[in-house]
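<goal> How does this chain fold?
<sample>
Here is the protein in question

***
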Amino acid sequence: VMQESFFSTVNLYVDYLSGAPLGTTVTARAQVMRAGRNIMNVSCDLLTSEGKLIARGQSNLLAGKPKVAGQ
């Protein structure tokens, strides 16, 4: 995937599996599932400090190059 890129969200799905009490530490673990030339598929799990899965998300992202004004 391009070093100097920005990404537009093509789609985003989130499954909310459980709640977490106020003050609970939540960790996000993200993974690139597939990186093509222009589109990247990523997933993310949200877990409590006890390892309980509380949400799972997936998205496809479209890579683009930043545009500099005047160029």
Summary: DSSP finds no helices and four strands in the chain. The chain has a mean pLDDT of 89. The beta strands are 6-16, 26-35, 39-48, 53-64.
